């Protein structure tokens, strides 16, 4: 079984890679609806069939990234691509439209590189595919 090394990951806004990424995560969730009936001996559930996704992107704050970081302002709805193993042809890709719900610059401290953290709420489906 092949494992994926995180140091190859890429996140794109549209077709532009976000600069200085230190890590990211994508979380998909699916709600459930109880369908237990009288006589059942345990509760049962079915999928709600309304999946959602969120993402967190961590990077070093870099003002020169005008097409990536600068585009990720709170309230913006943007097209994202998440490439866990890099963006080369044939590699796994998750893509979807998301809204920037939080943008945190800092902890700013003496002698440290300033971090930037983005929180994204998916709007619509997250597509699983491969890079062409």
Kindly summarize this structure in a few lines.
With 132 residues, the chain is mostly beta strands.
Structural class: mainly beta
Number of alpha- plus pi-helical segments: 0
Distance between the termini: 23 Å
Order of helices and strands: EEEEEEEEEE
- Helix proportion range: under 10%
Kindly state the mean pLDDT as a whole number?
93
Count the beta strands. Answer: 10
Strand content: over 45%
Unreliable spans are none
Counting copies of identical and different chains, the oligomeric state is single chain
What spatial form do the alpha-carbon principal axes imply?
elongated
Rg (C-alpha, Å): 18 Å
Which helices and strands occur, and which strands form pairs?
Elements: E1 10-13, E2 16-17, E3 21-29, E4 32-34, E5 45-47, E6 52-60, E7 77-83, E8 92-105, E9 115-122, E10 127-130
Report on the structure:
The protein is mainly β and 132 residues long. It is built from no helices and ten strands. The protein has strands at residues 10-13, 16-17, 21-29, 32-34, 45-47, 52-60, 77-83, 92-105, 115-122, 127-130. Strands 1, 2, 3, 6, 7, 8, 9 and 10 form an eight-stranded antiparallel beta sheet that branches. Strands 4-5 form a two-stranded antiparallel sheet.
Provide tags for this entry.
two-stranded antiparallel sheet; mainly beta; 8-stranded antiparallel sheet; 10 strands; elongated; 132 residues
